[in-house]
Amino acid sequence: MYIHERDNWTDFRWDMSQVSLLQEKVFRKQGLLYGRLSSLGFDSKLRAMAENLTYDVVYSSEIEGIRLNVDQVRSSIARKLGIENVKDTAPSHYVDSVVGVMLEAIQHYDTPLSKKKLCAWQSAFFPTGYSDGSQIETGQYRTNEEHIVSGRFSSAARRGKPMFGREKIHYIAPSPDRVEEEMEKFLIWFDSEEPVSSVIRSAIAHFWFVSIHPFEDGNGRLARILSDMLLARGEKSEFRFYNVSSQINKDKNHYYDILERMQHGNGDITEWLVWYMQKLVDALDEADTIVTTILNKSFFWQKASSVPMTERQTQMLNLFLDGYEAKITSNTWATLAKCSKDTAIRDIQDLVDKNILIEDIPGAKRPSYSIVYDAEDFEHCNTCGSRMTCNGCSNCGACDKNESVQQIEIQV
Question: What is the pLDDT of residues 335-354, one digit of tens each?
Fold first, then answer.
């Protein structure tokens, strides 16, 4: 028996004794993250959000087996948010459409959700009307049966197409004639107010939506967007600094296994809530690392504000401060700055003389360099007050990191 075959199947229940401690942990980490973000200016917050949304879009698609170009996604988000992007890569029409859906959802988190809006978002995921080479229904609720079968990471398999010898049905969604009624109930609940935290509602929305499976394809991505919307409503903020998609992508086998067990269950979704909240905790920890990078960049430029630099030096430092994945060498500098190697060497040596860069291994045949961060410029830990480094608190291990760093080496 599938869960939707039970009477009042959406009267979900859970063991609060198992959920409450994790929920409190999520709340605490949300508070710490937003506390740290309060010291950032508006532009820095936009950059932090842009980086988070980039990976939210990329990983949410990757869960479904769709690989997007990270640079295209980052450029599309930067353009739509009106912020500068060092590596500006023209996004495809498809990437722009997917990014547009995400931004509309989070920037208008407090507007009512409707069938029309959901159908428009689903259409944006499939502008050609095809998925994996097969024509699908777009912009409307499905009119076909929806079977989740073996090979579920293939969208064709999720739509019940034969897998030739590997057929195993994991879940059958409600019949097409029930979808309209089931979605009406979902939409009313989604826009209602309940004495339940936004964290729990976010998890329920995700599970409920994918269990209805209202569209022929794109249900997983829409479920994760709706989860983000409810988190944003709870925080009353259009800024999104963490996402659960990246964590689900790291553990997607477990993700599908838990969903399957719950969809065969009796309405007790405790296991799903516990797993989902743990992914939120992991997502908040990951976001904390991104915020640390942005804060350290801010502190660096406060320190270096009086140091004379050329426009090229400033642009290059910003590129590496934003996490460009390569060591600082004269060859890398010359390539990225589109200048000669001799010019790159002069740029770097000038910054070494000004204590902005330091040679990693003095006298090395092929030297590489690191950006210098003075210890007193690092922020302090909200937990114990000790100096924070790019790897977390050097004293109490906040962010689950215990490394102490005097300088940050930009490398792969």
Answer: 999 999 999 999 999 999 99
- The enclosing H or E element of 114 equals none
Give the span between the Cα atoms of 92 and 155, in whole angstroms. 22
CA atoms within 13 A on the CB side of 262: 28
Separation CA 48–CA 68 (nearest Å) = 20
Q: How many CB atoms lie within 10 A of CB 274?
A: 19
Q: Which tens digits make up the pLDDT trace of 210-268? A: 999 999 999 999 999 999 999 999 999 888 899 999 899 999 889 999 999 999 999 99
Q: What is the 8-class DSSP label of residue 111?
A: S
Run of H or E residues at 148: strand 147-149
Please choose, from the candidates 178, 250, 255, the residue with its C-alpha nearest in 3D space to the C-alpha of residue 213: 178
> What's the whole-model pTM score?
0.77
d(CA 79, CA 50): 10
Taking a C-beta distance cutoff of 8 angstroms, is the pair 122, 131 a contact?
A: no
Helix 16-37 and helix 198-212, axial crossing angle in degrees, nearest 10: 110
